Amino acid sequence: MRAVLMVAEKPSLAQSIARILSRGNMTSRKGLNGACSVHEYGGSFAGQSAHFKMTSVCGHVMTLDFIGKYNNWDKVDPAELFSKAPTEKKEANPKLTMVKFLQVEGRGCDYIVLWLDCDKEGENICFEVLDAVLPVMNKPRGSERTVYRAKFSSITDTDICNAMNNLGEPNRNEALSVDARQELDLRIGCAFTRFQTKYFQGKYGNLDSSLISFGPCQTPTLGFCVERHDKIQSFKPETYWVLQAKVNHEKESSLTLEWDRVRVFDREIAQMFLNITKIAKEAKVESVSKKEKVKQRPLALNTVEMLRVASSALGMGPQHTMQIAERLYTQGYISYPRTETTHYPENFDLKGALRQQANNPYWAETVKALLSEGINRPRKGHDAGDHPPITPMRAASEAELGGDGWRLYEYIARHFIATVSTDCKYLQTTISFSIGPEHFTCIGKMVTSPGFTEIMPWHSIPLEESLPSCERGDIYPISEIKLLEKQTNPPDYLTEAELITLMEKHGIGTDASIPVHINNICQRNYVTVESGRRLKPTNLGIVLVHGYYKIDAELVLPTIRSAVEKQLNLISLGKANYHQVLEHTLDIFKRKFHYFVDSIAGMDELMEVSFSPLADTGKPLSRCGKCHRFMKYIQAKPSRLHCSHCDETYSLPQNGTIKLYKELRCPLDDFELVLWSSGSRGKSYPLCPYCYNHPPFRDMKKGMGCNECTHPTCQHSLSMLGIGQCVECENGVLVLDPTSGPKWKMACNKCNVVVHFFENAHKVRVSPETCEVCDAALVDVDFNKAKSPLPGDETQHSGCVFCDPVFQDLVELKHAAMRHPMHRGGQGKRQGRGRGKGRRLGGRPNPKKPKDKMAALAAYFV
DNA sequence: GCAAGGTC
């Protein structure tokens, strides 16, 4: 029997498709990554009986990145990222071990059918799957074809069965166009991001973002927000005048008439109109017209519309909304929430879905009425061929969903009910009046059939005063006629909903990525979310966009994305060569990049207005080893030290506090040491600002403090203060924290293990001697006579922290489970057999004595 | 540490 592997883009689709093709007759099991399932059933394929295995990936299997050494921001010139830096495909989510999973399931299969989404990304994933699976599948017999592509436009029985009966081939060109997009986005985004981040960080001390990112989607998104800001800033209010007339009808009530000219911007002309209408004492009805008008029921719900409404009506941001929707989906309350489609599939069970809502306390009445009177055919929407519109899938109560979950579900349910309701119908009455030579109008609306507005009351036609019934030629006395002086108002900041509309219109991002881009510009502190979910650009956001406009407006215009996509489309249509398009587009952006770098002074002029130069920021903290002047500590993230005399910036560890460390100096470079400490875990270590940025020894890396320094003799180094291998992590060493007394502790220099010991000891020192059993450094401890916990009123003791019986009660291993042989298990520390030669210590050089001491010394003198 | 695109 032949075996057929079939792969969909996500677990939910694999299940739906398998259920359709097996007619519900399948067995399912979880795959080895826990995320994907495998559904198996029997059938026939290519005229022979076959065993089918339907499974899925989780989106892209692979992601594109530069090879390792090009990810070093300090050593790589961003310009190299345009051509020189090689890229490689890495597993998109290593935790899912997707390649291995596919290979386990694909081994021994004869055929593969690709059921990935029918768009370019899906086509690209086809080849990612093939790259993983073809090497382990059975080799084709003769000239037999083994790779098939299913093309479907909806998840319905007919569509899926049709696809299975008309299998095609994956489209290499479409996949290549995605490869090209990935490479362009990566090279362009990273080059600009790294350049401007490093450039501005090295220049200004109070930028309020630690990452000044640039991207072909996020930057135009920011551009929209700043464009609105500029409109507000440049807005000049204008005074205008409106002629307002009121007429009496039915004794007490008066009717306000709207001027047909709406408004005029010249006071004298306005005054003239007032004068000529004032002469008339009456208003004459010129015409009365009645029209039946319709407010259309909504189209079926897709993702962007849901995001818009969630933002503007529910006050929920797009990222948050998608998280909630994702949860409602996985719990089975709503259908798949990422779709562009606004048209229900032909065989969609509208009535079934409606019946599920018949007992909801809020809308049972409406639903029951619809069910008994017959539902209305939904409007014809757009079928993007991806997923059905977003609908409720089962009944839910406010109590079980809670908070935002319920609010979103309620909206989705009401929207769904509205789509099968009738339109709202109303009668619009328009009365035209003349007062002297001027014309005025009065409009009244009367609902004749509320239709869908019953379930979406916020769309209902507001109740208005009823108009008088009158006819042509009727005369009404004027009770008042006057000029109103008003001013034009500036527009307000862009709402999130408006931004989503703009992004959709210009093709910036996709339904799934729009929330990510909006979130990005918030996180980078380019915009803030104000009340009413309006997006107000920050100084940083404004300066960046104005700078791009000044240097190269294309960098921020929304057209940049569509121009590139036009080129990419040529690849997918087979009309252009992948390499040529890629090379050509990269060349253009490389030129743009160099021009941007050369013109960066133009951006600086704008930056200087809002931000302070590094030299003017921060407080003097420690002395520079080169000029011996004080360097300034810039606390704003990313915190760093800046020597204005040498014009050098030294980065520091983040998320903690930095203090001067007793004016002690690094023996290698004379820089004053600083002490970093983390608040919560109470871990701290000294570091040399210079060594932290320029590792002094070959075996050290950037970002190491003294607790990782292999200097053989410096009193602050790992060599002098290291005690023993970390009890938890693989490579860490527990290092004495010399500043920690009287609550002494040692902390791992790699992970966050902290060991408290010898509380109230007067002195704790690391001895040059080592433990004979476990090879750890011995520790000398001095206690005050009065407080000594040592037996026999001793005040001093020297021993191994791990093995010495005298010490065992004085060592308190904090944080997480300890795996050191001595501290295994909860009951009694000495139960384990093997103390001493712990496995973690065997075969490793003692951290106290670098094996290659001469090498370290040699490096020291270089 | 960076992009945008899938999805968990």
From TrEMBL:
Source organism: Alligator sinensis (Chinese alligator)
UniProt KW Isomerase keyword: yes
The protein's name in its UniProt record: DNA topoisomerase
InterPro entries: Topo_IA (IPR000380), Topo_IA_2 (IPR003601), Topo_IA_AS (IPR023406), Topo_IA_cen (IPR013497), Topo_IA_cen_sub1 (IPR013824), Topo_IA_cen_sub2 (IPR013825), Topo_IA_cen_sub3 (IPR013826), Topo_IA_core_domain (IPR023405)
GO function term, MF aspect, one: DNA binding
Taxonomic classification: Eukaryota, Metazoa, Chordata, Craniata, Vertebrata
A GO term from the CC aspect: nucleus
A biological process term (GO) from this entry: DNA recombination
Keywords: DNA-binding, Isomerase, Topoisomerase
